[in-house]
Inverse folding.
């Protein structure tokens, strides 16, 4: 009788993408608040006149996400981090990122 169970894969690569997504959300929120607080940062993030600073904010957040994902994937590819901690950290980071992108919050920093 053959063993029909699939091999158990480590949770590390999945954990890496979850945590990286949370960090990317925080970066997007920080860039949003910083663009509101500083006209020079807003001008720097304005990569296209038709899009405004949203292009720079989004591209910056995606670049950070990809870098963090690559680093965490390399660190955790054969590991099994605690899934509860990973999910809690992911939700906390996503919540922070969402709060930072709310106009009620980031407009407090308007210059």
């Amino acid at each position: 009788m053959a063993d029909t169970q699939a091999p158990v894969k480590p949770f590390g690569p999945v954990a890496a993408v979850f945590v990286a997504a949370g960090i990317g959300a925080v970066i997007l929120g920080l860039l949003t608040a910083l663009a509101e607080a500083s006209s020079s940062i807003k001008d720097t993030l304005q990569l296209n006149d038709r899009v405004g600073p949203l292009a720079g904010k989004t591209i910056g957040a995606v670049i950070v996400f990809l870098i963090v994902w690559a680093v965490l994937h390399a660190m955790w590819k054969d590991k099994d981090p605690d899934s509860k901690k990973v999910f809690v950290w992911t939700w906390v980071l996503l919540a922070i990122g969402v709060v930072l992108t709310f106009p009620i919050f980031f407009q407090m920093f308007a210059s």
The mean pLDDT is 92. The CA atoms of residues 1 and 7 lie 17 Å apart. Residues 13-109 form one domain.
